[in-house]
Amino acid sequence: MKKPVKDEVPFSYDVKVGHISANPVTVNLEADAAERVGLARLWNVVSVEALTAELQIGKWKKDGVRIRGRVHARLTQSCVVTLDPVESAIDEPVDQIFVPEGSKLARIVTDERGEMVLDPDGPDMPEMFTGDTIDAGAVVTEFAAMAIDPYPRKPGIAFSGHIEDSAEKDVRPNPFAALKDWKKGE
Length: 186
Fold this sequence. Notes:
Elements: E1 14-16, E2 25-30, H1 33-43, E3 47-60, E4 64-78, E5 85-100, E6 127-129, E7 133-135, H2 136-146
Parallel strand pairs: 5-6
Antiparallel strand pairs: 1-7, 2-3, 3-4, 4-5
């Protein structure tokens, strides 16, 4: 996947890795009007009325960075049934670890057969970064995007007018039907 160019990211807040201490620092972020327009375009929604985040940014182990907190957003989407505007609210936890490229902390855990071991309830793998900055705004944007309802509906609206075929009509054709008269043709 192509990484977005810095100018393509609608909401950005660079954090200098060298300035991060062991004691987490609280950072409050808020998207301005132009950033919200860019986010609406990025997320393919009608509008983004608000995007805020309260993050704690601190060192993780020796050379990693941990960003934790919450992201809040209010946005308007189109109802998938009526296309009317639907108000949506996002309140999503953020917890992301970053390690420098090539760090031992980003190695994938394998078992004795060399197969990758994944714990679906465990922490996510650390993200790698290059250079001396991490874009906390891009982290907030990603976590908010994952919380957007892909099929928003107005309250009380249901799909109607669509009739599914009955199971009796779902008869699969016999794959050998074309061969049944093959011997007779000789």
